[in-house]
Amino acid sequence: MVRRFPASAVAVALVATATACSHPPSAAPPPMPDMAPMSTAAPASPAPAPVVGTAVSIDNFAFTPATLTVHRGDTVTWTNHDEEPHTVTAGDGSFRSPGMDANATFSFTFTNPGSYDYICSIHPVMRGTVVVTP
Ligand SMILES: [Cu+2]
């Protein structure tokens, strides 16, 4: 009888300790999700990057980029990625490609600053512009 009492006391103490440990103080409240509205955060999607280079892709009956800015003296190269033939025909006649079959290319060197509108003479709804800076 004498030995069992301390054993029980130890057991109770262990249980009490375990109980205490199973209830740690909530020192870290969960962050409030409504404190950081994600809708106003800066969009992670890529910004419309300025068009660089001197290449225009003809794809799906469209010139891409529709407006290309180059420097005086640059040579612009169009590449037809469609199966359909296309042309690159300047509105002012300053340049004019032959019919371009699939994967054909056409290049033109712009020696004068200005804005050059062009179309595909086969599909006049296809329009593009080359802006030549001094
Ligand atoms: Cu065309």
TrEMBL record:
<dbReference type="InterPro" id="IPR052721">
    <property type="entry name" value="ET_Amicyanin"/>
</dbReference>
<dbReference type="GO" id="GO:0005507">
    <property type="term" value="F:copper ion binding"/>
</dbReference>
<dbReference type="GO" id="GO:0042597">
    <property type="term" value="C:periplasmic space"/>
</dbReference>
<dbReference type="Pfam" id="PF13473">
    <property type="entry name" value="Cupredoxin_1"/>
</dbReference>
<keyword id="KW-0574">Periplasm</keyword>
<dbReference type="InterPro" id="IPR008972">
    <property type="entry name" value="Cupredoxin"/>
</dbReference>
<protein>
    <submittedName>
        <fullName>Cupredoxin family copper-binding protein</fullName>
    </submittedName>
</protein>
<keyword id="KW-0732">Signal</keyword>
<feature type="binding site">
    <location>
        <position position="86"/>
    </location>
    <ligand>
        <name>Cu cation</name>
    </ligand>
</feature>
<dbReference type="InterPro" id="IPR035668">
    <property type="entry name" value="Amicyanin"/>
</dbReference>
<keyword id="KW-0186">Copper</keyword>
<feature type="domain" description="EfeO-type cupredoxin-like">
    <location>
        <begin position="51"/>
        <end position="132"/>
    </location>
</feature>
<feature type="signal peptide">
    <location>
        <begin position="1"/>
        <end position="27"/>
    </location>
</feature>
<dbReference type="GO" id="GO:0009055">
    <property type="term" value="F:electron transfer activity"/>
</dbReference>
<keyword id="KW-0249">Electron transport</keyword>
<feature type="binding site">
    <location>
        <position position="123"/>
    </location>
    <ligand>
        <name>Cu cation</name>
    </ligand>
</feature>
<dbReference type="InterPro" id="IPR028096">
    <property type="entry name" value="EfeO_Cupredoxin"/>
</dbReference>
<keyword id="KW-0479">Metal-binding</keyword>
<dbReference type="InterPro" id="IPR002386">
    <property type="entry name" value="Amicyanin/Pseudoazurin"/>
</dbReference>
<feature type="binding site">
    <location>
        <position position="120"/>
    </location>
    <ligand>
        <name>Cu cation</name>
    </ligand>
</feature>
<keyword id="KW-0813">Transport</keyword>
